[in-house]
Amino acid sequence: MINAQLETIILYAKNVQILKNFYVENFNLKVIEEDQIWVLLNAGSANIGLHRMGEEYLEKTDTTRSYDNNTKIVFEIDVDIESGRSQLISKNVHMREIKTFDNYPFWLCDGTDPEGNVFQLKCKK
Fold it and tell me: What is the mean pLDDT of residues 6-17?
C-alpha cells in the first residue's frame, strides 16, 4: 500500500486569470506560481492548480457554458456560514442554501465559481 498525502488538486480552465482572481479575491488564497497557462494557489494544507485547457479542447467549448463535473473543493471558513454566504452573494457568486445533517457538527453551503466548478463553505456549528 502507498501512503499518500494530498498535495495539489488541478482544475482545467477556459480562463485561468478569471479563476485565479475569483479564488484570490474571495478566499484569500496566495499565488505561489504563475505563467500564461498555469497558476498554483496555496490553499492551506494543499494547493489548487489552475491549468488552461489545451487548444484542441478550447475550440470545442462554448465560452458561456458551465460544465458539470464530479469535483467539489471544500473550504473551512473562519466566519459564520451566513456571513460567508452573504459576502459571496454580494459579489454575484451563485450560492445554494445552507444545510447540515443530523449529528454533524458543521454548517455547509455550496457555490459555483465562474466556470461552474463547485465549491463548498464549511463552518463549525
Answer: 94
Asked whether residue 57 carries a pLDDT value surpassing 80, the answer given is no
The answer for residues whose C-beta is within 8 angstroms of residue 20's C-beta and 6 or more apart is 31, 34, 39, 41, 50
Q: How far apart are CA 84 and CA 78, in angstroms?
A: 9
Distance of CA 1 to the CA centre of its chain: 30
Q: Are the CB atoms for 39 and 20 separated by under 8 Å? A: yes
Q: CB of 38 within 8 A of CB of 51?
A: yes
User: b/e for 25-43, b at 16 or more Cβ within 10 A?
Assistant: ebbebeeeeeeeeebbbeb
Q: Cell 473543493, residue?
A: 73
Predicted TM-score (pTM) above 0.90: no
Q: Go through the domains of the chain in sequence order and give each one's CATH number.
A: 1-61 (3.10.180.10), 71-125 (3.10.180.10)
